[in-house]
Amino acid sequence: MTHNSAFKRNEAAGLDLGWVNQIKVNRNAADRRAASLANRRTVKKEYQAAWLVKAIQCIDLTTLGGDDTPGRVERLCMKALRPLRTDLMDALGVQGLTTGAVCVYHEMIAPALKVLNGRLPIAAVSTAFPAGLSSLETKLREIELSVAAGATEIDIVITRQHVLTGNWTALYDEMLAYRKACGDAHVKAILATGDLVTLENVAKASWVCMMAGSDFIKTSTGKEGVNATIPVSLVMVRAIREYYEQTGFQVGYKPAGGVSTAKSALQYLTVMKEELGNEWLEPHLFRIGASSLLTDIERQLEHYVTGNYSASHRHAQP
Known about the structure:
Elements: H1 17-21, H2 27-38, H3 45-57, E1 59-62, H4 70-81, H5 86-92, E2 101-104, H6 109-116, E3 122-125, H7 136-149, E4 153-157, H8 160-164, H9 168-182, E5 186-190, H10 199-211, E6 216-218, H11 230-247, E7 252-254, H12 262-275, E8 288-290, H13 293-306
Parallel strand pairs: 1-2, 1-8, 2-3, 3-4, 4-5, 5-6, 6-7
Helix pairs in contact: 2-11, 3-12, 3-13, 4-6, 7-9, 9-10, 10-11, 11-12
């Protein structure tokens, strides 16, 4: 994970159940704020182009299909290294543009490493993704194997029952064990927010995972019925802001699942800028988990450069 030299990784702050138990979320207020952010007029013309280039830099280009093959992953990685056509890059005056990382299953780390060879982070989903219902011993071993295979980021899934039953100590201990197993690899905690029922649960789970040392908190596996949403994102980024104010540690944020259009990417960038500031608009603190998003962004940038939209099938599919 690339970051500036002054960046400090989140360290386990210790579980504060008094703080966790007093967390409350005003659903109506969260929905109103989310609607105002989502419906705001978007930036236009060259400003929009610049924001879309920024979005590309923050994409975790993802393939998590049961039919993944080494060839598909190699193509994905080549697209991650050159996400825009050369003529568009030249017209935009952009050089060296890449996505933030690629995200794959454990078995696809080797073909990703073959192409990327250290030029981009490789994120591996782990801990019995997406349900997370294997033994803790199995999940910890999976993390260790992925790190040994060359993954520099690990996207873990929490055990949802710990949240649904309010067993915050169990969630904290689990997350602490995951962080330790990751070693130097950065860890993203997937909350599977669509399964957590309430925004209060989302807020509490966010805090517990950060207290246990998670480097990122992430909305979804992409496999739940409901994935990333603006209200959920608002709750999570405000938890990140408060955690930073209390501890001095910056935790990253990753919406994932259903972020497939340039317009939706701009909405999430707006949330980050408005709630956390420009510092969080960098790949070491913001990622978008996506597969088809890059195609739409490329189409929008082609329209900006040429005045015409091309059919999506004319763009290389990641």
